[in-house]
Every structure is written in structure tokens, then in C-alpha cells.
Amino acid sequence: IAHIYCNDVVGIVGENFTFPVEIDQRMVEIVWKKNKDKVAEREGENEPTYFGLLGYRSLLMEHGSLTIVNLEKDDAGTYELQYWDSEKDHYLNFVLVVLDFPDPKISCNTSDSELTLNCIAHFQESLNYTWKLSNDPHSYPGQELSIPLENVDITTKATCIIKFSQTERSSEISLIQCHP
Predict the structure, then answer these.
(1) What range(s) does the Immunoglobulin domain occupy (predicted)?
(2) Which of 25, 40, 48, 119 could disulfide-link 160, Cβ–Cβ 3.0 to 4.6 Å?
């Protein structure tokens, strides 16, 4: 009987990506494949052997996980980890999606009492949004930031920072551009 497990994972172009493998038993033999083509293998205590173009940007870890350095769009696909624990074969399958990371866009609206800044980034996964104001040491979580009009200093710059995984991008707007 083989145990098969499948997991969808997301990586960002230019990042290093490690497949989330958590196996606590000893692996006698490990083989990683991408779309059925061998990427890396290790038998026992031997050094890993790497295959194909992806092999030049891959690193097989002791505990069986595979890291791909400097992800490219072409790295997307179905990956399979096959390992033998001296009793039976096990299979872990991953579908890797590789995404470009967007720059955020800032818009602003003014009402009678406040200035509202909005940060938008079109991305398939949920992002972590943070605001920083040039005249304030605090950072503010969220996609939207409201400032009472009486507190708006038109020399202030507002920066929206988006983060996913290890990558972050930011955009800045001067509040004078928003002031009525």
C-alpha cells in the first residue's frame, strides 16, 4: 500500500522556494520528480544526485525537502517526492504555482471629516497590508487607512507595503495629492 498526499503550493518569481515536507521517519531512498522527470535523488547516506536544468538550481535537504533557488515561471508544475523507509514506498505530490508579485496601487478619497487611503494589489493569494506615514513612527495594518482631516499634514507621505512569503513591495503617495 502506498500513501499518497497532494498539496497545492505557491511560490513567487525570484524567491527561493522549499516544498513543505514534514517527515519524521528515516528515508532510505529519496527521489524528486517534476512532471515525471527526475530532479534529484539520494540513496542512503550518499550525496544527492541532480538532473536536468532544474537540478542546477535545486538543493535536496537531509529531511527530504527540496529547495528551488530563484524561482522562474517555468518551475510551475506537478512535483512528486517518492521515498522508501525500508518497508514501503511513500508518495507526496505538490502542485507548484509560480506567481509574479504586483506593485500596490494607492487611491485616496476625501469626505467632510477624513481622508481615506486605499491600497490595492491584484494577487491570487491573501496579502499582508501595512501603512507607514513619514511623520509617524507607527505602522498601521490593513488595506485602508483613514486620517481625520484636521490631522492631515500635506507634507506627509503615505507608504503602502504589501507582503507575501518573503517578498514585499511598496508604493508611496504624497498627501498633498489627496487634499481637496
Answers:
(1) 6-99
(2) 119
Grid cell of 43 as nine digits = 540513496
pLDDT tens profile 97-115: 999 999 999 999 999 899 9
Residue ranges making up the domain that contains 10: 6-99
Residue 1 resides in a domain: no
Give a yes or no: residue 22 inside a domain. yes
Same domain, 43 and 92: yes
